[in-house]
Protein 1
Amino acid sequence: MSDRWQEMAVFVRVAESGSLSRAAREMNLSQPSVSRIVGTLEARLGITLLLRTTRSISLTEAGTLYLDRARTLLAEMEEAEQSARGVDSLHGVIRLAMPVLYGSRAVIPALATFLTRHPDLRVEIIMSDARQNLIADGVDVAIRLGMGPLDDSTFGSRRLALVERLVVAAPAYISAHGTPANPAELAGHACIVQHGLFGRESWRFTHNQAVTSVDVSAKLWINSAPGIMAATVAGLGIALATRVMAAEELRTGELTQLLKPYRLDPAEVHAIFPAGPKPSAKVRAIVDHLAENLTFIGE
């Protein structure tokens, strides 16, 4: 990479992450080198792009304008190089963020053939059920699992799959507290709700074209899908889960599906592109692959 392209790339990563040290780690450079490169860029342009204190880094007005244009130029350069190589020679790094349990059980297994097809491409996976700052984390694609409209309306997106949702409980809970015969009876049970994703205290069911919403009593709020599964298997209450989340526990009998005649709206799986609605060739390739391989998982 030429000096000017390197200056631009380093500046963009520092600006997005808000940290010299983080940008240095991600770009395999030393922190003094990153600081020197940004300083050289500013000296060459004759302007201040970043305001630095001991605790934070922020953009000047000129830095904000430069960042926007630099992102576009870097994306165009990558696109031009990839077009010349062709889709079968994708290379570089894709940073892929995903929820923990759905990622483990659905997304990661779907990557095997993709990585075999593109041996020069490296995928860095970030697994968390919390909503990350995708720009600061340098994420190229985020897999989001949830209900309703997306929060990140300025990002590009593509729906990948619809995944069946179920009401589940452990046999021990059912033995101690009984089985709800209809959604209304859930109000008298201990329920487990997940922060974010599709965790809600009002659960909506459809039966014979009639819609019923039930306000459940959430005894536990948990911020991760593995935690939801652990608490439910332990008999602490009734929970919502996707078929993917609960497939193994249902197979082994650790969990039982309740209220089978009543359907819940499916969870939507989306790919989010923080770079905007026109992602790079490598992002398009992995999203196309996931759309093809995730569509029918759990349905």
Note: The CA atoms of residues 94 and 123 lie 5 Å apart.
Protein 2
Amino acid sequence: MARDTRVVMLNENHWYPKHRLFAIALLKKLKKSGYTHLALEALYPNQDRKINERGYPTFNSGYYIKEPFFGQFVRKAKELGFVIIGYENENREINRELSQAQNLKQILDENPNNKIFVYAGLDHILEKETKSGKRMAAYFKELIGINPLTINQADMVGSTHNELTLIPQNLVNSFEKLDKAVDFFVINNLTSSSQDRIIGENKTQEFTIGPHRFEELNAEEVLIKIYKKSEYDIYKSRSIPERATLKKTV
């Protein structure tokens, strides 16, 4: 379905890192379908240019991008050749949703071969006006006349045997909270144990932390962060870890 449009929109709940694992899993498939740009709402101003130059994000790239899975999402996109673009409206005096849509339109207007994977928060991808007004995707359709493929993974939660379950909107729109103008809902049951398969294993070096180090911390748990050496050598603690995990000290 992504081949038949120039725009795929996927949302996330900002506090669910596993949503970024699904986004990572889509990157390679969308690249094969001709997608050229990854549009991120989460970027700070001018950070898209810096990421495209260096090939990876840093702590200063955006608030949500500090999370390891989001950092891996951006790294993988650059590895596959995507151009990163920020489309957020920084002028709060004008309509945020409309401005986001206008910024995306500009990318499509630049080149007829451009295809965009738009990664947004929550209801920005709704294609029709709601009681609270129009969202970015609704303005986008009006401005460009392109029907994006919209996938909502933020509103449906459930226990399934599958890691990912794709459900057409017309099968669930009788439920009030699922009567939203998107093409599909996804039940995302990916776990952190899926990351090696989805992201790909990185080369790591075995390192032993002596027990005295934990005794000095006087804590029941410690947060262990693993960084990419080439990034950490330059940005130190302003780097984004590839992994972060809590470990018990006893």
Note: The chain is about 30% helix and 20% strand.
Protein 3
Amino acid sequence: MRSLNDIADEYEFLEGDERYRLLIELGRELEPMPDALKTDATLVRGCSAAVWVYPTGDTAALHFLADSNAAITKGIVALVIAAVQDRPASEIATLDVTAALEPFDLKNQLSSNRTQGVPNMIALVKEHATRIAAG
């Protein structure tokens, strides 16, 4: 998976439909999430599309599997995951993911339907990290 900084550098030079295409491409690059993990327990509430997030790894390097049933939403999921992937759980628990995503200006680039679940997804990722960091 590309780093969030690398993605932001590319995103900055794109406009309109090209940004949508990049988000779709990022979604396709997500590590596959087994269907067995797509359960009610891993479902992110409040998203217009179905989004699932599942933590793996340990306190030293928390790794997330994630997926969505909508292409652009899956790209947004990929951005959130890129911000936190393989970092220590304690770091993710305190990371300002919203600030990390500011270069993408998602609220102005996408419809509110596509971004309404982003805070819930960030909250879920941080909850997982806090729980795992606490042991």
Note: The longest helix spans residues 118-134.
Protein 4
Amino acid sequence: MREKVWTFIGRHAGGVQWRILWLAHQKYIIGVSGLVRDDAGRVLLIKGRMWKPSRPWGLVTGYAESGEQWHATVVREAREETGYEVKAHPETVRLVTGFKRRAEVAFLAEFVGGTYRPDPKEVLDAQFFEIDALPDGLLPSHRELIEQNRDWFQGDDDDRAHAQREANRHDGAEAGDP
């Protein structure tokens, strides 16, 4: 009987079914991080004003806005936090769920240009770092993500493409999502 009701609503009530489902299910915020590299293969790190003093450094990070494509969040956050323009790849390199009402996703991105203008409300500093010279106080999950994508930072374009495919395959299975 329940299935017949949902089928009827789906066929005859237009967007009503979607609205009922939206009201009945949990809502999530999406945390987005970007592994931004420059032409020398260095990673862009942000020293956040609101992060713990013991772990002030991390990747370009922010929350996706309603209706925003997640990889576009990296572009927006990089511009807002540093003044830099970046190009984000649309494929994820990590998707982690299991948090209470939050999911985290990460993308590869390339530095395009721009003028360094840190947002004084959020950013104390932003710098490009060599992969083997990451600062103390880097968020452990971000350090792990950088290490997992080491080949993308250090290799040629073919190596980077292969590393991206491997990270997609590996992290997709780990996240537990279909």
Note: DSSP finds six helices and seven strands in the chain.
